[in-house]
Amino acid sequence: MNDKKTTSLRILVADDDEPILRTARIALEKAGFTVQTARDGKEAYQYLQSGETFAAAIFDISMPHIEGRELVRYMQSERRLMNIPVIIMTADLKARLSSDSLSSGAVAFLPKPFTDVQLMTTLGMFVRTDAAAGAK
User: Fold this and answer.
1) Angle at 34 between CA 79 and CA 86, to 5 degrees
2) Is residue 12 a contact partner of residue 57, using CB atoms and an 8 Å limit?
3) Domain that includes residue 78, residue range
4) pLDDT tens digits, 82-106
5) Is residue 71 a part of any domain in this protein?
6) Which of 104, 105, 103, 108 is nearest to 121 (CA)?
7) Interior CA angle at 63 toward 14 and 102, to 5°?
8) How confident is the model at residue 6 (pLDDT cuts 50, 70, 90)?
9) Is residue 32 part of a domain?
10) Which CATH number do you get for residue 46?
11) How many domains does the chain fold into?
12) Could you tell me which residues are beta bridge partners of residue 88?
């Protein structure tokens, strides 16, 4: 399902849970995206500051150093980053976490564990590509 439209689209995925990070990376790469992974919030922050362009970001809500919501707030304060859609994911399904994430600027909330279809469907709502739409 690799097509030229998605190979140039970079997705930043940050999670301190290695199996989740690997699952997301494999699903996104299979769909044709270029994936940059970060193992904690500080590493994700460094990628955001690097000047690289991302079509979307997917952050775990709870990570060492910098939490996902804090990364979203940072992105909302930077003109270059404020229009990048951010999906927040977590295994903790408290309603307040979802509403706090959305009020901080995230566009969606993805519960963990998730399937490849759930990931691609959620991403496809905000990143229009053949690969994301094909997962529906």
Assistant:
1) 40
2) yes
3) 4-129
4) 999 999 998 876 656 666 777 788 9
5) yes
6) 108
7) 75
8) very low
9) yes
10) 3.40.50.2300
11) 1
12) 59, 109
Residue 135 resides in a domain: no
For the whole model, what pTM was predicted?
A: 0.86
136 within a domain of the structure (yes/no): no
b/e per residue 72-98 (b: at least 16 CB within 10 A): bebbeeeeebeebbbbbbbeeeeeebb
Neighbouring C-beta atoms of residue 109, cutoff 10 Å: 19
CB 51 within 8 A of CB 36: no
CA distance 136 to 91: 23
Q: Work out the mean pLDDT of the chain and round it to a whole number.
A: 86
What DSSP line would sit under 23-83, residue for residue?
HHHHHHHHTT-EEEEESSHHHHHHHHHTT---SEEEEESS-SSS-HHHHHHHHHH-TTTTT
Enter the tokens of residue 96: 């307040």
Task: State residue 101's pLDDT score.
Answer: 73
